[in-house]
């Protein structure tokens, strides 16, 4: 396995700046996730690493060695695409064996059989080896696609939203399998997704991309608990974080257009106008709560309920455990975990 580093990578397509001065490292044996919305530059990044695209400027390094002049074959990466790139007239076995039968590799047939059998067992597709891929379900085809990548033990795995076309239950199952496989085999993996749940549950570290810019790199805990910008704060977390305007008033801190006055945060000097981020799980309904509001909507999800509370002119989302008996129009009091508040300036950057 290898480490992969991007230094000051930029890439444009005519009038669109796909990537601008992007730098990060995927460490050896790390599961690194690139997270961002459609059009952020995630796939472009993968294609540059794989030498399927040439960057306009910047450098790609594998194990501290510059690989900019290397061809895709020389870089020895495995690319798993969003769409299943399989040969429909071939059996599952032959699809898995195909990379090993390359004239460049000249792998003996007995070694091919051993590797294909091992990969099929890992991905639970041993019973499908004789079946044509055209007769497989979507989940089975994606397993074969992943298997064809891992069977040849490349320097790095590049995965471009490989789970996005699957239904929720199968996506969850494959997510667990991929994570287990990466940890047990020690593969270096760069995984691209727009799904924040995939990023938070699978990654050792996450890089957040937005419109070609790398906004933040950190552990899942860093990204969730210490978002660098309001964009990152809104990208992760379900339901989405509450972002409300705040200000100072006679030594207290208040939420504008509401009746909510908070103690000024200790050891922190805030400007007159800030954006306050409050995670829904940090707002809890309490009969002895110091804040008040009216319930406008409840969304029962089984294990928890999303409660929409209107306080003054501000709308806040709260999470209540289980199925709540609270109903629309009921006045409630609530508390907020003050040490969990996030503060951002007017440009959306986190205040230290």
Task: Describe the protein.
- The chain contains nine helices and 20 strands.
- The protein is α+β, with helices and mostly antiparallel strands and 352 residues long.
- The protein folds into two domains: 4-229, 3-Layer(aba) Sandwich (Rossmann fold), CATH 3.40.50; 242-344, OB fold (Dihydrolipoamide Acetyltransferase, E2P) (Beta Barrel), CATH 2.40.50.
- A six-stranded mixed β-sheet has the order 6-7-8-3-9-10, with helices on both faces. The protein has a five-stranded antiparallel β-sheet with strand order 13-12-11-14-20.
- The mean pLDDT is 90.
Reported CATH architecture of the largest domain: 3-Layer(aba) Sandwich
Poorly predicted ranges: none
Strand order of the largest sheet: 6-7-8-3-9-10
Strand residue content:
25-35%
| Biggest sheet layout | 6 strands, mixed
- CATH homologous superfamily name of the largest domain? P-loop containing nucleotide triphosphate hydrolases
User: What is the number of strand segments?
Assistant: 20
Terminus-to-terminus distance: 37 Å
**What would you call the shape?**
elongated
Helix content: 10-25%
The total domain count is: 2
What's the CATH topology name of the largest domain?
Rossmann fold
Q: How many helices does DSSP assign?
A: 9
C-alpha Rg (nearest Å): 24 Å
Order of helices and strands: EEEHEEHEHHHEHEHEEHHEEEEEEEEEE
Structural class: alpha+beta
CATH class descriptor of the largest domain: Alpha Beta
Mean pLDDT: 90
